[in-house]
């Protein structure tokens, strides 16, 4: 009897699950189909006409780059300073945002004895900082400060502080409290406990997230350049604005951006593997 | 060297010293290096020059303008007419019988009370502006420019006086401009004007309960349509705020993020099987798929959007495809890592029951990676909402482009702040929804 009831229950649960899965899949399919047809309608160029033109533009710039011959490499070199500026935007933003994030994380985790009343306040603050799209802050600051890399840097740093702060405080939540208690038994102050009990435990994970963020920020600063924040994005906007004939320059920027992003991705994933691997071994 | 150290005891004196010294170097060196880098960028970004050129007053103007609106009292000298209009817009002009009480118009002359002792009188081509603690500024418009008589004493900062134009703004909320063609007085008020309905709509200035009564009543204000649709129409088609267009743009942005992320997930998952060591024995295929992921990710959203804008023009489709291409790479890489870390025991258990290949994947593999799949897709959905605003600004449309355009005109900052607030609300809502779904689906609570 009991077994039969159990079987009934399991079967009905399975049915319900299958129903939910089916509904989920149907929902996703409906969103996809209706979304694509709707957006195809809203787009100024349709999908089918666009498909035939899809390779036109890449083809055009590849041909122009090919015609440029060896001078193409000169063009790439020519844009290195602009790329460097974008990297600097990302670098400074990640450093400043990361430093800010450490402070925010230390102020918002119960596990590291943050001051209680501050915790919810700082958490909400980080949520808001994360929610602000970089574009909005960048455009606002460009309006006030003029076209320069600094607005982009501040915008990216602001967002980074919120995003990294959340990840850092999650790391803080998972640390071992024994070293903290040991130090407080010796009469260590809060700062000393953070420095000697918390930091050594979290440093590898912090650094790993930091590098991941650097990767993301390089992309973000390249894009922000396009709305007037300097760096490679601005150069790209200029060469694209020239239209036909500047395809070789555009191609040079594309190649440079691609190579840089790949390089940073590879280096950062290698370093992250080492960092997290090292912490795992101990 | 490395082999030697293996045989030695772990703690030897030299090694400890070496480690301590290395630590000391890092403790001193890392902050110094960071400081040096920041100093270098300080000059590379040309911050001193930037600080010199910054225009903080623009921030003040922006802040005032985004929470206030102004009413223009304008006298057009050529046509000899007087007009009172909100933001100087023709479609928000007060009729002569129904002027605000602080303006008294007599034919084409006017007496304007700007409050707190500030006052303007306009008579013919002469304007007198009374400023407490300063005196009366008398300006006469001539055929070639303006003639100004200032009170004795030094000329204050808020007064810009040249032969072509006089511009006086003694406080943030009072401004007077005179040129040879017109005399213009701005009076600022707090709030967003005409936010709900256009100035000349019958519904303008009604309270919520009045609107509710009208919506439910049978007497049609406009015989051609029901009151409910009239209210909707007047609200959405409000020419100052363009609610309808803003909502469409927001919808486009959300659509870009949702479509892009789902598409990326659907293409990323099968490709991830091809890139995972334990599912694809062929080294060649694996290598190819991984490089494809790297390629898609490396090209970056910026370049993909530019290519797609060329091919497909403006619109949500462009943004969705740009997001889909980039994130197929990112998600594919993440999924393939998750696939490589699965526990093989479950697969073998399913195989022991005589399951076919597809059943093994369905019941042995998918349940293991589903949490990773769902949580990563939701994370990307959230961050793509933010990316979609930026892609829009590059020219793909949606709320990003709208934001850039309203900022470029830099006239109606209240519209800009309206769009900014809506964008942030949408991002926060997406963020909350995705974390709610994540909790619901993965932790089951």
TrEMBL record, chain A:
Residues 83-268 form the ABC transmembrane type-1 domain. PROSITE patterns: ABC_TM1. CDD domains: TM_PBP2. Belongs to the binding-protein-dependent transport system permease family. Pfam families: BPD_transp_1. One of its GO terms (cellular component) is plasma membrane. It is found in: Cell membrane. GO terms for molecular function: ABC-type phosphonate transporter activity. This is Phosphate-import permease protein PhnE. Keywords: Cell membrane, Membrane, Transmembrane, Transmembrane helix, Transport. NCBIfam families: PhnE (TIGR01097). It comes from the Bacteria. The chain crosses the membrane at residues 19-37, 89-107, 128-146, 252-271. Gene3D superfamilies: MetI-like. InterPro entries: MetI-like (IPR000515), MetI-like_sf (IPR035906), PhnE/PtxC (IPR005769). It is a multi-pass membrane protein.
Automatic annotation (TrEMBL), chain B:
Gene3D superfamilies: MetI-like. The chain crosses the membrane at residues 24-45, 254-280, 301-325, 388-404, 416-437. The keyword Membrane applies. It comes from the Bacteria. Keywords: Membrane, Transmembrane, Transmembrane helix, Transport. It is a multi-pass membrane protein. GO terms for molecular function: ABC-type phosphonate transporter activity. GO terms for cellular component: plasma membrane. It is found in: Cell membrane. Its main location: membrane. Residues 250-434 form the ABC transmembrane type-1 domain. Belongs to the binding-protein-dependent transport system permease family. This is Phosphate-import permease protein PhnE. It comes from Roseibium album. The lineage of its organism: Bacteria, Pseudomonadati, Pseudomonadota, Alphaproteobacteria, Hyphomicrobiales.
């Amino acid at each position: 009897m009991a077994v039969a009831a159990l079987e009934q229950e399991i079967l009905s649960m399975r049915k319900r699950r299958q129903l939910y899965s089916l509904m989920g899949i149907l929902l996703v399919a409906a969103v996809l189909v209706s979304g694509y047809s709707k957006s195809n309608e809203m787009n100024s160029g349709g999908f089918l006409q666009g498909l035939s033109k899809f390779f036109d533009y890449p083809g055009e710039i590849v041909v122009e780059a090919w015609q440029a011959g060896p001078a193409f490499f000169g063009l790439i070199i020519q844009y290195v300073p602009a790329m460097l500026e974008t990297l600097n935007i990302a670098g400074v933003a990640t450093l400043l945002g990361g430093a800010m994030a450490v402070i925010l994380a230390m102020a918002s985790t119960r596990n590291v004895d943050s001051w209680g009343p501050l915790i919810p306040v700082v958490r909400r603050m980080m949520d808001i900082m994360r929610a602000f799209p970089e574009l909005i802050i960048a455009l606002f600051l460009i309006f006030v400060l003029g076209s320069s890399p600094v607005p982009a840097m501040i915008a990216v740093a602001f967002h980074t502080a919120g995003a990294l702060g959340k990840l850092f405080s999650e790391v803080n939540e998972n640390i071992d409290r024994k070293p903290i208690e040991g130090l407080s038994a010796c009469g260590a102050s809060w700062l000393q406990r953070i420095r000697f009990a918390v930091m050594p435990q979290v440093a590898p994970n912090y650094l790993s997230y930091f590098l991941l963020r650097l990767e993301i920020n390089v992309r973000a600063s390249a894009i922000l350049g396009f709305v007037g924040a300097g760096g490679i994005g601005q150069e790209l906007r200029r060469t694209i604005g020239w239209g036909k004939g500047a395809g070789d320059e555009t191609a040079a920027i594309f190649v440079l951006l691609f190579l840089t992003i790949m390089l940073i991705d590879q280096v950062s994933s290698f370093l992250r593997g080492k960092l997290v691997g090292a912490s795992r071994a101990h | 060297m490395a082999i030697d150290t293996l045989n030695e005891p772990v703690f030897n004196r030299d090694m400890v010293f070496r480690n301590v010294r290395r630590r000391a170097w890092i403790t001193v060196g890392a902050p110094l290096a960071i400081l040096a880098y920041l100093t270098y960028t300080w000059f590379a970004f040309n911050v001193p020059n930037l600080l010199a050129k910054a225009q903080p007053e623009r921030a003040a103007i922006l802040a005032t303008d985004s929470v206030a609106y102004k009413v223009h009292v304008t006298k057009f000298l050529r046509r000899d007419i007087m007009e009172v209009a909100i933001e100087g817009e023709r479609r928000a002009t007060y009729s002569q019988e129904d002027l605000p009480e602080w303006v008294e118009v007599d034919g084409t002359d006017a007496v304007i009370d700007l409050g707190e002792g500030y006052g303007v009188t306009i008579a013919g081509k002469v304007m007198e502006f009374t400023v407490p603690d300063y005196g009366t500024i008398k300006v006469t418009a001539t055929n070639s420019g303006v003639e100004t008589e200032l009170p004795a004493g030094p000329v204050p900062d808020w007064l810009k006086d040249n032969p072509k134009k006089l511009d006086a703004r003694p406080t943030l909320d009072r401004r007077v401009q005179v040129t040879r063609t017109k005399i213009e007085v701005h009076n600022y008020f707090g709030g967003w004007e005409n936010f709900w309905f256009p100035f000349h709509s019958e519904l303008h200035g009604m309270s919520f309960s009045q609107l509710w009564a009208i919506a439910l009543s049978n007497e049609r204000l406009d015989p051609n349509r029901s009151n409910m649709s009239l209210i909707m129409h007047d609200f959405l088609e409000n020419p100052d705020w363009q609610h309808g267009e803003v909502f469409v743009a927001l919808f486009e942005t959300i659509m870009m993020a949702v479509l892009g992320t789902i598409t990326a997930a659907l293409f990323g998952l099968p490709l991830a099987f091809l890139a995972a060591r334990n599912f694809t024995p062929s080294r060649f295929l694996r290598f190819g798929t991984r490089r494809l992921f790297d390629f898609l990710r490396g090209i970056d959203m910026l370049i993909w959007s530019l290519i797609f804008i060329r091919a497909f023009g403006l619109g949500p489709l462009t943004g969705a495809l740009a997001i889909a291409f980039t994130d197929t790479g990112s998600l594919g890489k993440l999924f393939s890592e998750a696939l490589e870390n699965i526990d093989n025991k479950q697969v073998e258990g399913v195989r022991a029951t005589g399951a076919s290949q597809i059943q093994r994947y369905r019941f042995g593999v998918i349940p293991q990676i589903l949490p990773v799949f769902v949580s990563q897709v939701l994370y990307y959905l959230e961050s793509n909402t933010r990316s979609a605003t930026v892609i829009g600004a590059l020219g793909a449309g949606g709320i990003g482009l709208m934001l850039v355009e309203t900022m470029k005109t830099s006239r109606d900052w209240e519209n800009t702040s309206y769009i900014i607030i809506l964008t942030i609300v949408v991002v926060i809502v997406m963020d909350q929804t995705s974390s709610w779904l994540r909790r619901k689906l993965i932790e089951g609570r």
